[in-house]
Structures are given as C-alpha cells and as structure tokens.
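--- STAGE predict ---
source: upstream dedup step, 1 unique chain passed
mode: sequence only
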Amino acid sequence: MLVVLFALPASAHTRGELDEWRADWVARADESLSPDLMEEWDDMRERHPSYFAPQLVISRDAFVIRHDVEQWRELVSVYWGEDTEQALCIISHESGGNANAKNPKSSARGLFQILGSLWAPHFGVSYEALYDPELNVCLAREIYLVQGWGAWSPYNRGLCH
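--- STAGE serialize ---
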C-alpha cells in the first residue's frame, strides 16, 4: 500500500502561486544566478517548508526505476557507487532515461537534466555536451558533491530517498 501525506503550504500563497513563482525563479536563474536570487529562494524555502520539502510517508515500493533507465546502470555505478539506486531514480524522474531530453522551459539537458546556463560555464562545456551520457553522469556527481541531492526536485519531493 502506498501512503503519501503532504503538509499544506503556508497560507500566504496557494500551491499554484508557488508553482508559478518557482517556474519564474528557474527562468531567471537560468539567465543569471545571483546572490539576490539565492536569497529569494532561501526566503521562500523558509516561509514555505512544506512546499519545498513536503513531509512524506512513502512505501519502499514507490521507489521505482523505469526499465528504460536500466540501460544506464553500469555507467551510473562507475560514478555513483553506493548511491547508484538514488541516482537512477533521479534519472528516471528527470529524463526517463532519455539522454537527449531537454526541458522546454529551461536550459536543463540530458539524463540528470543539468541546468546548462548554470553548470556548462562552470565546468567549461557547451550546452550540447550535456547530452553526452557519460559527461552528464560525471557532472551530475560533481554537482551532487557541491549541492547534495537537493539539486534535484524529485529528491526534494521525496521521490528518491
């Protein structure tokens, strides 16, 4: 049996308003990630903790990896080791295992949906290079070392714990 319990967001904003704000924030961060933008994120996260990290009670059966993601298991295990299952879960939710996935609302690309505008310049690679499965998996591990699992919304929503 799958049981999911969500706490309601703070009454100052509806979930729809928060979704709209988050989409706008991602679009602005995609252009230029500034300290002010990060402060805005932190402020909203403090004011709406249930929206950013809903309290979940979820059975182990819900930790599902799609079959089309399994093709990447060997590659992912090289870079992720004991975290392979969680990494595959992130890939499953982010791209469905499609190495050519592109988010139409941002510069996110590849298996882990790495934000090109933020990370491509940081790592000195092109946006197009993010479609390379091995590079994407390798860079995702580097991002994890900087930001932890919180860099990916499926983890933040409690889907890949």
